[in-house]
Amino acid sequence: MPGPLSIEHLAAAVERATSGALGAQVIGDPQRVITTVAPLEAAQAGALSFLANPRYRRFAAATQAGALVLSEADQRALFPTGSPTCVLIVCEAAYTWFAFAAQALAESTEPAAGCAPSAVVHPGARIDRSATIGPLAVIDEDSSIGAGVQIGAGCYVGRRVRISEATRLHPGVRIYDGCRIGARCLLHSGAVIGADGFGFAPFRGRWIKIPQSGAVLIGDDVEIGAGTTIDRGAMGDTVIEDGVKIDNQVQIGHNCRIGAHSAIAGCVGIAGSATIGRRCQLGGASMIQGHITIADDSIISGATAITHDVREAGFYTGIYPFMRNRDWERNAVLLRHLDELRERIRRLEAQVRTQQTGSDR
Amino acid sequence: MPGPLSIEHLAAAVERATSGALGAQVIGDPQRVITTVAPLEAAQAGALSFLANPRYRRFAAATQAGALVLSEADQRALFPTGSPTCVLIVCEAAYTWFAFAAQALAESTEPAAGCAPSAVVHPGARIDRSATIGPLAVIDEDSSIGAGVQIGAGCYVGRRVRISEATRLHPGVRIYDGCRIGARCLLHSGAVIGADGFGFAPFRGRWIKIPQSGAVLIGDDVEIGAGTTIDRGAMGDTVIEDGVKIDNQVQIGHNCRIGAHSAIAGCVGIAGSATIGRRCQLGGASMIQGHITIADDSIISGATAITHDVREAGFYTGIYPFMRNRDWERNAVLLRHLDELRERIRRLEAQVRTQQTGSDR
Amino acid sequence: MPGPLSIEHLAAAVERATSGALGAQVIGDPQRVITTVAPLEAAQAGALSFLANPRYRRFAAATQAGALVLSEADQRALFPTGSPTCVLIVCEAAYTWFAFAAQALAESTEPAAGCAPSAVVHPGARIDRSATIGPLAVIDEDSSIGAGVQIGAGCYVGRRVRISEATRLHPGVRIYDGCRIGARCLLHSGAVIGADGFGFAPFRGRWIKIPQSGAVLIGDDVEIGAGTTIDRGAMGDTVIEDGVKIDNQVQIGHNCRIGAHSAIAGCVGIAGSATIGRRCQLGGASMIQGHITIADDSIISGATAITHDVREAGFYTGIYPFMRNRDWERNAVLLRHLDELRERIRRLEAQVRTQQTGSDR
Question: Do the beta carbons of residue B183 and residue B168 sit within 8 Å?
């Protein structure tokens, strides 16, 4: 739960976090205390809210929020002379200012460091004194847990794992032997890092397992959603670069590389040895085939299957448009016989050409 | 495992549960004791079975079941004078009667209440005396666990969570701070309730996290499958209304609302802020885009991507029909050039029109 | 981590495992000690590598690996007189030989048997003396754990579960009451075996749960990926036959049967009562509808929805090909009106026929 901070403190925190990149003007009392964030309609006197889309102006006009972040255009339109109830924070990047402020509020309440008596920590593990190990967590041999790290209840950290400073594992995260997690990462419950990749050689009608001897290397500032799985490399490692954000129930196969600052929405599957560029965005439930490469700055629509390389940045889609089932049934039959339609067109073209020639003669 | 009950007791239990809505006539000994349920072919003398589809009449005719629920038409066709080995329960809604009876059998064996010595319960948590807390479960500060609740081994219940009466968490369920679970719910292993929604603001080529300060509110009589994840709201809550049934590995994004008595099959993904109506049915692996609304009583086929609002109840589908790979390759090429096919048709139409006019002259 | 073995030992291990089916000739010192496996480019003196695809010959020519498995043709082309630095293992099935050798290396380091003091083992459970029970694992009443079984930290094994010899559960696997796991299986973190199938009967606008009284039966040599869920049968069991390999985040519904030696890639969903044949391959994120049957030896492309029976072995696909979003938008509109295109072709054909007839006259 966000803790209380004055608007003046919030503004200073945003300025520090952005190196002063977001100019903002406060109209009203900067000592007003903010305890939480809330949407325009639900906000009360202690809440900070924002207006980013002019469609919601009418909600902003009536909001009970204690403070409101909005653009200058919106401020002039709605509150040309300020507001009697609401402190206005005027900033062109209103949503981004709000995001930084909400972070500052959230960070103002942090847990006490220490190791729960019920946790099972191997004597050969190195735990920084400022780290927190939750109840019934297991930290195995030769692992190293950095400063300010928080390990939630029931987590498992395998052998020779390294977790860098200020990273947080929510309850029930599991990290296999030898994986590395960078600084300031956030891993949600049920995430599994470093399970075996899916590698088998066929031999006389059965499958022979290829031991997966690589690891998973995760950079700094990475977020990994609930139930997401990232497999260790077969030989060589699976790599998640800095600043990547991964939603829930994403599957990333062995030896993939995800470029820095890419965002991957829920239910995406990325097969082994795929390389995703930097700053890509993969929509929910999109599927990336193995061994392919996606160019930097590509955007893939949700529910789209990428079956070959994307060599050029762009916005790509492949979704069967939904329709009423009875229409779909008719269409699906036609779709299965597109080549016949084309053949009929060819025949028509030939006939028309013949007739043309005939009548031209 | 279901416990033993006489057919008379079973019939009384069904009558209570349905307020007498399902009339049923028993032909045979009502004191016959039933210990389990089984399919027609496998059922033995202590088992209850059912016939709901006339296709399976031949199995029913030969069944060894101790009791059989079936319609009057089936009874007349198969056992016009009763059965020497099998008690007949004649009911028009045979499958529904069977379902209620199977529930009554299952409920006749319940565990003893109490808290496992290995569980870690915060002194500030409130646990009803009739609740069961399994081994190595963690119940955190200020949480409240209602009457008859069963918390499985290794579950995590966060701070300020409220779980109402008779709800059951199977081993390894995780509930984040501040979420609420209604009465008589069933949550399966690996389910994660209340992880952060996927919300980031772009800032100079990286992503700034929007703290997710809402919660998840789950109504009464909700079932949630293994590995399913339901994210907390960004601001405001994610809401699952009463009687919703959710299968395994479903992902529900922040600030969604799922209407009462909807059923969601496995592997469905619902992106943030989507609103699903009441009594909807979403087929397996269907995908619902964010911020859209689906009307009450809609049915969505499996593997269908819903990319815009569904304003009217109906049955909707969007699946690329599968075919032999070589046919698909030819078809997929044509599909990518549908506009060229249309252009060729247009040209043909123009040419034919010209010829027509020519020959009319 | 693989342990050290001489090439002579490795060759003997491969010969034992394959009953001498893979002939191999060693060129160089058979006493060279191998400690790990690595790809051609990264391999150092203690590593075993392989060349299976002629495309990578240039990496093989320059490799620093201590030993290299390759075909006779590759050996002749690259190292006709042997290699000064690298022991050559010449085998036609180079990748398969490598796979067996990598297994032998991996198996040369095994954990010590015993039960962690923090594990919670029911007095009514039977644990073989050679089994390993990890910290904070729970083994419930009447379960039986076979010889050499390894149960990872935080696993849950329910009542009356039977796990056969040499099977390994990674941390955080959960097995519900009454399920059976064969010998030499490997289950990854977050897998859930035996949760309730998704079965409800409609009754007056709400759903009545059908108790799921079957179990899950898993054969020998089965691998199950992280986060994969396999539901127990409603009545009767869900069956996974010998040698099946299942990747991460796969969902298998109640009463399915998966034929021996089939391989199922990540994110696949298989709805209830589907029957998959033997030696099938299901590509990532493919979807199998309920109650259908897929013939032995079928191959299904990734992202393909199988909506009716596949009666004949073959290679099947159904994917909407991706394209630039603006092209897709145009195409999708046309796709929704394929029947109109066909109607226009019909009309053209009639008109051309009439003109033909007219000009013939």
Answer: no
Q: Determine how many CB atoms are found less than 10 A away from the CB of residue C4.
A: 13
CA distances from B35 to B29, C216, C240 (A): 15, 20, 27
pLDDT band at B1 (very low <50, low <70, confident <90, very high): very low
B254 is catalytic: yes
Confidence of residue C1 (pLDDT cuts 50, 70, 90): very low
Report the amino acid identity of residue C64. Q
**C275 vs B300: CA distance, rounded Å:** 24
Residue type at C197 in one-letter notation: G
Of the candidates A136, A176, A335, which has its C-beta nearest C338's C-beta? Answer: A335
Structure tokens at B214: 């809402």
Residue A320's CB is within 10 A of a number of other CB atoms, namely 26
Contacts for A154-158: CB closer than 8 Å, 24+ residues apart: A154/B136, A154/B138, A154/B154, A154/B156, A154/B174, A154/C136, A154/C154, A156/C152, A156/C153, A156/C154, A156/C171, A156/C172, A156/C189, A157/A125, A158/A194, A158/C171
Per-residue pLDDT reduced to its tens digit, C160-190 = 999 999 999 999 999 999 999 999 999 999 9
Specify whether the CB–CB gap between C17 and C100 falls below 8 A. yes
What lies within 8 Å, CB to CB, of C59 at 6+ separation is C40, C41, C51
Distance CA C142, CA C162 (A): 9
CB B75 within 8 A of CB B94: no
CA dist., res. C62 & res. C76, Å (int): 15
Is B120 an interface residue toward C (CB < 8 Å)? Answer: no
> By CB neighbour count within 10 A (0-12 exposed, 13-18 middle, 19+ buried), where does C326 fall?
exposed
- pLDDT of B244 higher than 60: yes
Distance from CA of B279 to the nearest CA of C (A): 7
Q: Quick check: C292 and C311 in contact, CB under 8 A?
A: no
Which two tokens mark C192?
């859930």
At A313, the pLDDT band (50, 70, 90 cuts) reads very high
For every residue of C123-152, DSSP letters joined together read TT-EE-TT-EE-TT-EE-TT-EE-TT-EE-
Contact between C47 and C38 under an 8 Å Cβ cutoff? The reply is: yes
Q: Which of B36, B135, B248 sits opposite C120 (nearest CB)?
A: B135
Beta bridge partners of residue C47, listed in sequence order: C36
Q: How far apart are CA B257 and CA A162, in angstroms?
A: 39
Share of chain A above pLDDT 90, in %: 81
Q: Which of A112, A91, A111 is nearest to A48 (CA)?
A: A91
Element (H, E) at A352: helix A338-360
Buried b (16+ CB within 10 A) or exposed e, A11-31: bebbbebbeeebebebbbebe
Question: Does position B2 have pLDDT exceeding 60, yes or no?
Answer: no
Sign of CA dihedral B324, B327, B333, B337: negative
Containing H/E element for A96?
A: helix A94-107
Q: Which of A9, A188, A254, A308 is catalytic?
A: A254
By C-alpha distance, the chain C residue nearest B136 is C136
Cβ A108 vs Cβ A3: under 8 Å: yes
Spatial contact of A258 and A244, defined as CB atoms under 8 Å apart: yes
Two structure tokens written together for B82: 């009763």
pTM: 0.89
Q: Would an 8 Å CB–CB cutoff place B316 in contact with chain A?
A: yes
Kindly state the helix (H) or strand (E) to which residue B103 belongs, with its residue range: helix B94-107
DSSP class of residue B197 equals P
For chain C, state the CA radius of gyration: 27
Question: How far B358 CA sits from the closest chain C CA (Å)?
Answer: 11
Element (H, E) at A288: strand A287-288
How far off is chain A from C179, nearest CA to CA, in Å?
22
